[in-house]
Amino acid sequence: MTRARQPEKHYSYTAYADPAMAQSFERKRFGGPIGEYVAKTQARVLANMVGRIKDRPILDVGTGTGRAAILMARGGARVTAVDASEQMLEAARRRAKDEGLFIKFVRGDAHALQFQAREFDVAICLRVLMHAPDWQTCLSELCRVADRLVIFDYPSARSVALFESATRRAAHTLGARTEAYRVLSDGAIRAALKASNFQVRSVHRQFVMPMQFHRLIGSRRFTTWSEDVLDRMGLLKLFGSPVTVVAERCGP
């Protein structure tokens, strides 16, 4: 199933199997002015990257509480959503039901997707590669089941996320309960895509300064102003993170 062979012991499985995590995930990730800003930006970027949504078969891998899946279903897509955590899926099902949307929710593992090759027009995968035991296998699976596009994100190794990641991984090694995520380089991403006959079509980089810093300030006006200044200085293109990528199939 994965190279780790004991996925149930990896924090990316145990943390999201916690009912309390499922209940609080949306509030922690997308609550407050900065969380709302991140959510709106994510929705806009996804819509732009997917293009036409209506009637397209779209897969959302690592759906969590269903945010991307619900966005696609609102646009009329035929959505299948996968997650390893039944607790997260329950929260996603409730949200979809509340909106009157039909989404096929399936419990499954991003390392071994139970779908046919090229079964979906688009495969979406957000906040998964940074946590997965084997990110290359996950990305390969996304490319296998996607006929045209894969859309995913990752923290850049060329950003301040590098230092937070190193701190968290060290704390995790010492026994602390923390999400010890990884950062990834643009080169490693492009090489993994090339191995699956995909190539990067476009990228979106979100912040130069750490997201936690923006949350601490808690001002959307400050965030948009400061990040715009850094963008005009050319720093966003160099150091922006997280990076959202849309890649397209370039071979059989």
Report on the architecture of this protein.
- It contains eleven helices and seven strands.
- Helices cover 46% and strands 19% of the residues.
- It has a single domain, classed as Vaccinia Virus protein VP39 (Rossmann fold), CATH 3.40.50.
- α2 packs across α3 and α2 packs across α5.
- The chain has helices spanning 11-14, 19-30, 32-50, 67-74, 86-98, 135-145, 161-173, 186-195, 211-217, 220-232, 235-239, and strands at residues 57-61, 78-83, 104-107, 120-125, 146-154, 198-207, 241-249.
- The chain has a seven-stranded mixed sheet with strand order 3-2-1-4-5-7-6, sandwiched between helices.
- The chain is globular and about 40 Å long.
- By secondary structure, it is of the alpha/beta class.
- Residues 1-6 have low confidence and may be disordered.
